[in-house]
User: Fold AAA ATPase central domain protein from Methanocaldococcus vulcanius.
Amino acid sequence: KNYVKNNLIQKSPVKWDDIGGLEDVKRLMMETIVISALQKPKSIQPWKGVLLFGPPGTGKTLLASACAGSLDATFFNVKASSVTSKYFGESSKIITALYEVARELSPSIVFIDEIDALTTKRGEGVSEASRRMLSTLLTELDGFQDKGKDLLVLTLSATNTPWDLDEAVLSRFPRRIYIPLPDKKATKEIIKINTKGIELNIDLDEIAEKCVERLYSGRDLKNLCQEAIWNMIRDVNKNLYELAKLPYNELRKRKLKTRALTNN
Ligand code: ATP
Assistant:
């Protein structure tokens, strides 16, 4: 439990507006968490598990953080492969502890990234630790109804290779949402989100078109913006290396110069 509390819990500052594009997906996720939280007749059962699948870097982790951020819920961010590799024999105990803590600190969002690392369709190449961790996870997902009637604990899982998942996993995640690469409109939004506070003097349409052609993901776009911002900073602040000689307290008093980003 201490391991879970110290290592797997994050505070999520992410809001829905921090996510560019994915309008339909955002609406589905909002729907899911709102219906989970509201008082309702017994026959209406909210989704307990949602599977997000799609290419890398398209915002799956971001969406899970936004669910937590919008509810001010406790956010558990678990990369399946890192739990099994670090805590070989203990990995299934960690899952049990994780759900105990999640119920204690409800509302909670549990995000299991790379769930495919725990299973393959043919059961080949999966370690005993992964197998045990998966079986505990599935038991927790099944048993939840009885243990935490009034608690909101939503499990979101993510994979880039949904075809590797077996039926045992898929059936626990009846709500499956495809997270696509950004289209032109989404690309423009993601560029704006990642250049907040900096004036843009660029042909956003032209750049977005090129990015879509090259199949840029949200992560690629973020990196592109970061690169452009660094180049601009280097250009405008010729004295950076002089400033490197100053102590921290002096540096805190100075302001970094910026200017509009241009096409170059
Ligand atoms: P992976 O499958 O590789 O784990 P992922 O789908 O979980 O990737 P994220 O970690 O959510 O991707 O995205 C990586 C980064 O890319 C985010 O931190 C964010 O800065 C940026 N990003 C990705 N998609 C979007 C988006 N739709 N809007 C804004 N930023 C995005």
In short: Residues 19-22, 56-62, 113, 158, 160, 190, 193, 218-219, 222 surround adenosine-5'-triphosphate (CB under 6 Å). The first helix runs from residue 2 to 7. The chain has a mean pLDDT of 88.
